[in-house]
Amino acid sequence: MTFERRPARRVPGRPISEQSDGTRARTPVATAVRLLQPGGVLLLAVAAVSLVAVVDPNEEGHYPTCPFLSLTGFQCPGCGSMRTVHALAHGRIQEAFALNVLTVVMLPLLAYFWLRWTRARTLDRPARTKAGHPALIWLLFGVIVAFWVVRNLPFGAFLAA
To answer: Which residues have a Cβ under 8 Å from the Cβ of 27 and sit 6 or more positions away?
Structure first.
């Protein structure tokens, strides 16, 4: 015996992209709606990089000073990141590495996570709730703390912005 599948009908109270059988529609409109969040994040990132590319953070008075640097005199792991993004936006990769190597190394990782999220939304798969294995997250945390400490020690002056 074969059963014919009836077309999905609109159920009040459910999102338009969700069908009556609980699955989500794979129409171009539904896909576009699912891509609104990753698209919004991309738009904000492009706007932020564009602002930093146009308004030079190397000139005094354009951006506030790092609060940690102001209070302690030590550089945080993010010190020099805006100048790094400015250098990268202008194609000066060597200068970017000299300002904050951690930022340059982390940008591809951020791009990977954004692409993974966008792909999951495009295929209508759930985005993972965990970024990775806890050991990897602790390793990343350790690298950031080590970078923070070493760049403020005399022998790590080459890491200072």
So the answer is: 17
Q: How far apart are CA 35 and CA 120, in angstroms?
A: 10
pTM: 0.75
pLDDT digits over 25-72, tens only?
A: 578 888 888 889 999 999 999 999 999 999 999 898 889 889 999 999
Cα→Cα distances 108→75, 112, 116, 126, 141, Å: 23, 6, 12, 22, 17
